[in-house]
Amino acid sequence: MFSRGRILKIDMLEHLRDFPKDIIKINLNGYGNGIVKGCRLLVNDDYIIIEPGIIYFHEEIYLLKEEYKLPYEHTNETAILKVKFMGESSSKDFVSHGTEVFIDNDTNIYEDELELCRFKLKEGAKLRNNYVNFEDMTTGYNTLNIIHTPFAAYGKSTLSPYVLTNFAKEAFGYKLSNPLDISFCMQSLQREEPMSKELIINYISARLEIEYKDYSNERLYKMLLRILKDIIGRKGRKRDRNYLSKKILVD
After folding, report:
1. In what order do the strands lie in the sheet with 60-64?
2. What is the mean pLDDT of residues 206-221?
3. Region 79-103 average pLDDT
4. Nearest by Cα to 217 from 168, 166, 128, 146
5. CB count, 10 Å around CB of 18?
6. DSSP class per residue in the chain
7. How far apart are CA 135 and CA 37, in angstroms?
8. pLDDT by residue (tens digit) across 16-46?
9. How many CB atoms lie within 10 A of CB 73?
10. Are 160 and 137 in contact (CB under 8 A)?
11. Would the pLDDT of 251 be above 90?
12. Separation between Cα atoms, residue 200 and residue 197, nearest integer Å
């Protein structure tokens, strides 16, 4: 309680210091490394822009409070936008956990690093992050690829919710009849937070009738693409949005 006549005590300041961080850590207990919220990537001229967000890495919380701009170059080779976690440093007044954001031609992701995206840019081309369709998300050149980016979810890191949203939107463009497809797509569209990897694998395993195993993000994407092609192939044509309006009901 802060009121006139009361003395400001050390334990009062300690509660102010620890409480917000403790609440977040309790909510993220048991989660895998990755992006918790935000950190959306935009492209502007010769820069990649990282929007504000929260990253959870080895039980520490890292907060990006403002947009961060990073210039990119044409290398005609795969480059990865990484966050490097510098470890703990301390002074008389602060304990901090710093990071470094950089673009690296080394495609290995080391224990103290996290991938935000990857791309391969031709000379004279511009990067883009507006995808024509779900399959376009892994186009080889000039496209921001976020398939490998880990997002924090309970148990293990998982796929970006933006990847699942793109899958669901395209799948709903066709007349879905499989209850598994309908249920999964509904959940993908209504969730802003990352979906658990276990749920994604269970859907894929049931839908494709394959063994349940722990798959990489890239493998999960390829199997979702396989399911989407099956949906398109079975239906043959897109859903008519005016289908219901053309019906005549007789009571």
Report:
1. 34-38, 53-57, 60-64
2. 95
3. 90
4. 146
5. 11
6. ---TT----HHHHHHHHHHHHHHHHHHTTTBPSEEEEE--EEEETTEEEEPSEEEEETTEEEEE-S-EEEE----SSEEEEEEEEEEEEE-SS-EEEEEEEEEES-----TTEEEEEEEE--TT---B---SSSGGGG-SSSB-B-TT--B--BSS-B--HHHHHHHHHHHTTB----HHHHHHHHHHHH--SPPPHHHHHHHHHHHHT-------HHHHHHHHHHHHHHHHHHH-SB--TTTGGG-----
7. 24
8. 777 778 888 888 999 999 999 999 999 988 8
9. 10
10. no
11. no
12. 5
Tokens of 33: 């490394």
The two structure tokens encoding residue 88:
């703990």
Q: Residue 67 and residue 163: Cα distance in Å, rounded? A: 22
> Is it the case that residue 237 has pLDDT exceeding 60?
no
List the structure tokens of 203: 């859907």
Token duo for residue 219: 């493998």
